[in-house]
């Protein structure tokens, strides 16, 4: 029988155009008095805009303006950025990281691949197992989830929790308390999964009420949370978001057609905030749309963003159903990260059951968590919770005073009011305002 011989395919062919025309990155602190200018020129490829925006937002940079052009084979971006205090980017380590991550060797840069906080997956934060949960939200649910993990002797090293439209999505990194390694025992994983499913299910019989999975992929954490909500269709039905937008801040999204160039034009006007561009670009990318041109600007508390897009198959948004779906999905993406009211920043020595203890105290004081971030640096755990009372109303001052007295001996507490017209919570005290993985980034850049 004749032997079939397959043609040889060079594994480096995919990167051939990049090697011939490597990306060019420029960090300019001279041209503008009040911001740093970052220019990126490279060969165009699917998803490149999201990659660039993701790197900038992971560094906690605020994008005040941006101009995007990627029609044809070349990609050109210009970003006006500041730090969270509105200052230029002058730290040499941060500038060096930007140039390396966005430059010619960015796609092979080992530090980018292994930087904790960028990825979801067992291998992404050392010896940790990533657990993904999504289900119907209710007061005290996070406390119940963390109690299950503590009872099973799993330590929560890092976590992000979002709530939107009465749903909750979590990505938690856990390890075995006795070995400090990822959990690889199928029996223990099965027990954990079953107990977490029961917690998410609550009193409901519907199997779709809650889902648990153990992630093996390598997806950015924030993007993964967006994907989980999108797959859960949180954008459907009547939105029950807790954020009460003033009329001038309510997101306004329109979809029009650019006849002469064959694009659909998406215009977004809403309250400005950190990571707004990332959330919008992430959603468009995961909905299989390609951004060819874009203009982003912010004026005080307002943001205005315009995207010229087509579907990956080259089609535009021609039907009312397609337009309505995109508008609803973008509205959901904007609202998922928005939190108003109080944020509680807690610092304590890390130990098994710490998250369970803290969330139990919050629950017993009648507080409901709308968003949370947990990170561990060395022996210290940093937890940030956006809270409201069980009815969704602002938290009473007496409640915070009682909470402070209860935990003052073991946990350091910093209470901050989230401003209603700023891009990020004001910075003071010991904690970074970008709480999820900012401290891990500090350690990486050290």
How do the strands and helices of this protein lay out in sequence?
Blueprint: H1 16-20, E1 24-28, E2 36-43, H2 48-58, E3 62-69, E4 74-82, H3 92-102, H4 110-114, E5 129-136, H5 141-151, E6 154-164, E7 167-176, H6 186-201, E8 210-215, H7 221-231, E9 252-258, E10 263-271, H8 276-286, E11 289-299, E12 302-311, H9 320-336, E13 341-349, H10 354-364, E14 367-377, E15 380-389, H11 397-407, E16 412-418, H12 438-445
Antiparallel strand pairs: 1-2, 2-4, 3-4, 3-11, 5-7, 5-8, 6-7, 6-14, 9-10, 10-12, 11-12, 13-15, 13-16, 14-15
Helix pairs in contact: 2-8, 5-6, 5-10, 7-8, 8-9
Describe this structure in words.
Strand 9 (252-258) and strand 10 form a beta hairpin. The chain is built from twelve helices and 16 strands. Helix 5 (141-151) packs antiparallel against helix 6 (186-201) and helix 5 packs antiparallel against helix 10. By secondary structure, it is an alpha+beta fold. It starts with 15 loop residues before the first helix and ends with a helix. Helices cover 29% and strands 31% of the residues. It is globular and about 60 Å long. The strands form two sheets. The protein has an eight-stranded antiparallel β-sheet. Strands 8-5-7-6-14-15-13-16 form an eight-stranded antiparallel β-sheet, sandwiched between helices.
Question: What's this entry about, in short?
Answer:
With 446 residues, this protein is an alpha+beta fold. Helix content is 29%, strand content 31%.
């Amino acid at each position: 029988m004749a032997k079939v011989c397959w043609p040889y395919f060079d594994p480096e062919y995919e990167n051939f155009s990049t090697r011939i025309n490597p990306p060019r990155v420029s960090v300019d602190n001279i041209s503008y008095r009040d911001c740093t200018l970052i220019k990126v020129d490279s060969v165009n490829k699917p998803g490149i805009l999201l990659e660039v925006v993701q790197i900038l937002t992971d560094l906690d940079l605020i994008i005040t303006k941006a101009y995007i052009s990627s029609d044809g084979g070349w990609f050109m971006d210009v970003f006006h950025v500041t730090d969270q205090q509105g200052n230029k980017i002058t730290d040499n380590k941060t500038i060096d990281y930007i140039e390396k991550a966005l430059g010619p060797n960015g796609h092979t840069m080992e530090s980018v691949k292994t930087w904790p906080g960028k990825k979801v997956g067992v291998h992404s934060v050392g010896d940790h197992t990533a657990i993904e949960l999504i289900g119907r939200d209710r007061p005290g649910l996070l406390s119940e989830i963390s109690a299950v993990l503590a009872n099973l002797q799993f330590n929560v090293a890092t976590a992000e929790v979002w709530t939107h439209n009465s749903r909750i999505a979590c990505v938690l990194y856990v390890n075995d308390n006795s070995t400090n390694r990822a959990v690889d025992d199928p029996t223990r994983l099965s027990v954990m999964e079953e107990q977490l499913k029961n917690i998410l299910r609550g009193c409901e019989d519907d199997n779709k009420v809650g889902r648990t999975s153990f992630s093996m992929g390598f997806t950015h954490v924030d993007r993964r949370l967006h994907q989980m909500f999108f797959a859960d269709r949180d954008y459907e039905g009547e939105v029950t978001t807790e954020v009460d937008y003033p009329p001038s801040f309510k997101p306004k999204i329109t979809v029009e057609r650019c006849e002469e160039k064959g694009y659909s034009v998406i215009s977004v006007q809403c309250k400005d905030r950190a990571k707004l561009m990332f959330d919008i670009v992430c959603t468009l990318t995961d909905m299989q749309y390609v951004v060819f041109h874009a203009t982003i600007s912010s004026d005080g508390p307002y943001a205005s963003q315009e995207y010229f897009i087509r579907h990956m198959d080259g089609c535009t948004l021609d039907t009312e159903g397609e337009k309505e779906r995109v508008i609803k999905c973008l509205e959901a993406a904007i609202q998922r990260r928005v939190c108003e009211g109080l944020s509680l920043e807690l610092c304590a020595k890390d130990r098994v059951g710490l998250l369970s203890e803290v969330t139990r105290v919050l629950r017993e004081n009648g507080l409901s968590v709308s968003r949370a971030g947990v990170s561990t640096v060395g022996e210290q755990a940093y937890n940030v919770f956006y809270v409201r009372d069980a009815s969704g109303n602002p938290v009473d001052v007496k409640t915070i005073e009682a909470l402070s007295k209860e935990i003052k001996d073991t946990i350091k507490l910093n209470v901050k009011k989230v401003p209603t017209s700023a891009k990020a919570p004001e910075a003071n005290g010991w904690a970074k305002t970008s709480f999820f993985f900012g401290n891990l980034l500090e350690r990486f850049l050290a």
